[in-house]
Automatic annotation (TrEMBL):
Gene: Desi1
Reactions listed under catalytic activity: S-hexadecanoyl-L-cysteinyl-[protein] + H2O = L-cysteinyl-[protein] + hexadecanoate + H(+)
Organism of origin: Thalassarche chlororhynchos (Atlantic yellow-nosed albatross)
Gene Ontology biological process: protein modification by small protein removal; proteolysis
Protein name: palmitoyl-protein hydrolase
Claim: Protease is one of the keywords in the record: yes
EC number: 3.1.2.22
Family the entry assigns: Belongs to the DeSI family.
Every PPPDE domain range: 1-116
InterPro entries the UniProt entry points to: PPPDE_dom, PPPDE_sf
The UniProt record lists the keyword tRNA processing: no
Domain of life: Eukaryota
Length: 135
């Protein structure tokens, strides 16, 4: 199938903060040990530097995101996905812009009804909430 655009992939992204990996899928915000999903080790890692935010404050922030913008039922493969989440907390635009670029092609438009119906949740993570006793 040809989209008319060179695609290296549609990327899953996550963010590692305070020694845990956090990501968003149709199950909401989840966490695991770094590289701990069944997707295996990452193809690339971008060092975003250090944060001055404490783990407690960061987890409160994630909890509020999980109860508002990033509930599981809000997930959409093209418009509100793992990259949207990582961008909120911060990844490069060449990754976050890719779904819109795919949708701009005739092939992307033709596949949209099918792809909108797909639930995507990388296996191997734990659903994140401040109530589960640990991050």
């Amino acid at each position: 199938l040809h989209t008319g655009k060179q695609l290296d992939g549609i990327w899953h992204t996550s963010i590692i903060v305070h020694k845990d990996e956090f990501f968003y899928g149709s199950g909401g915000i989840s966490s695991c040990a770094p590289g701990g999903t069944l997707l295996g080790p990452p193809d690339s890692v971008v060092d975003l530097g250090n944060t001055e935010v404490t783990e407690e404050i960061f987890l409160e922030y994630l909890s509020s995101l999980g109860e508002s913008m990033f509930r599981g039922e809000s997930y959409n493969l093209f418009e509100h996905n793992c990259n949207t989440f990582s961008n909120e907390v911060k990844i490069p635009s060449y990754i976050t812009d890719l779904p819109a670029e795919v949708l701009a092609t005739p092939f992307g438009q033709a596949l949209r009804p099918l792809l909108d119906s797909i639930q995507i949740q990388p296996p191997g993570g734990n659903t994140f909430s401040r109530h589960n006793g640990q991050s």
